[in-house]
Specification:
It is found in: Cytoplasm. This protein is of the alpha/beta class. Helices cover about 50% and strands about 15% of the residues. The protein is built from twelve helices and ten strands.
Amino acid sequence: MSVPEFLPLSLQELLPKWAHFCLFVGRFVEEELGVDLEGKRVLVGLSGGVDSTALLLVLHYLSKRADFTVEAVHLDHRLRPESIDDAAFCRDLCAALSIRCAVETADVAALARERSIGLEEAGREARYKLFASLRESGPFDYVAVGHQLDDLSEDVLMRLIRGTGWPGLSGMPGFDPARGLIRPLLLLPKSTLVAFVTRLGILWREDATNADDAITRNRVRNEILPLIRRENPNFWQSVARLWKIGRIEQDYWDTLTANPCEILDNQTLKDAHQALRLRLYKSCLDAVGPGQALAETLFKLDEAWLEQKVGAVFQFPGEKTATITASGVVFGSSH
């Protein structure tokens, strides 16, 4: 049986080691992410894997102490025959904890064909579209996902491979206010989550596609990261420090770029250091809509502004544009 008949229902019923582990997560959410869960409704994205299973359990135990509500949603991607069993596991786990669980389906393969994107990206799009829809209709204050320190390490390397600039190089955020998205387990290694869920006697689900090295992220996980850990066994801690430094610096720059606008005038740009100009560009582009602004294109935009290449237009992901004009830089959308 994947889910034991009887599970601990509160922090007090856990071994002290695991009760302290749950409280550590609670402090991380409150102190590092700046999120107060008291009185809130939290939706957990539950795949049935060990990470999201641990997340659901931790938030369940914390909810009894901090007085917030936890619900779960599972999305069946319809990519594997065993996905039916994944959904059944999620229902059983939530039933054992008296947590409401919604199970939805999406034809991810069809979405990938329609959008001419990979299955991994299509699955991610489907999940986050569902999260956004449920957050609005729930309504839920926050959506919690199970990314952990191993995922953060992969993300840092993936961003480096793609050419991401600072501060994005420090990895995914722990809190995304625009989407109400929180990652409570972000600085915890997967091995800790495995130990926690194993101790509770739960047999989580494994996704066989995680071993498919045709997927770039899997090659990073299965081939590159083991080599790095061989050179530096404390690589996880290095990534955690990088993330904390990046968060502090991002908070600082956010205070300087807190009022994005459609037009950055020449005088504002002349008075700003290049570091600030680059972040002003990014802030204005972020205000236009979703889509990551690559550092290389931001540098080219800044160079064009310095050279006063009036009429030059720069394209950014999400069909966003930045246009050099006689009075400054104008940001907008091409659709």
